[in-house]
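Weekly puzzle thread! Below is a chain. First person to post its structure in token form gets bragging rights.
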Amino acid sequence: MLGLDPGSRTTGFGVLDVTSRGATCVDYGTIRPPLASPLPDRLEFLARGLGELIEHFRPAALVIENAFLGPNVRTLAVIGQVRGALIATGRLAGLEVHEYAPREIKLSVVGTGSASKQQIQYMVRTSLSLPVLPSPFDASDGLAVALCYAHRRRGGVAALLAR
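Winning reply:
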């Protein structure tokens, strides 16, 4: 599965292989459009970059962080456009798309909905048995998004088996 932390300047991604035994990190990193580019060019760059990741890794699902309400309406509008471009790219590739709120991701990965970037980074490293802290934060957040889905999916399977 492919987890995304959407951003117009930097979109973090994390690729996990999820089995009944748990999750394994396949790759992580960022997609970074040229900074001086206008928004439509950045959206195209992000969509093409995601398309390349999908083609290379062939994930079964795309998991993306939901936009959160903040004080800056312009930032929220831009993130909404980034998310739209990424979601459309995933759907055009035939992927299931799952969305989680930032608080839900933090709660799932760290155990508290108010976790810091450093706490997320540490728990992602620990959960995936990575030799180093995944960086930058955008990449560790992409892995956290994917881990949240893996935890929810595993919980869903366990709940069904318990019936």
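Puzzle host: Confirmed. Bonus trivia for everyone else. The domain at 2-162 is CATH 3.30.420.10 (Nucleotidyltransferase; domain 5).
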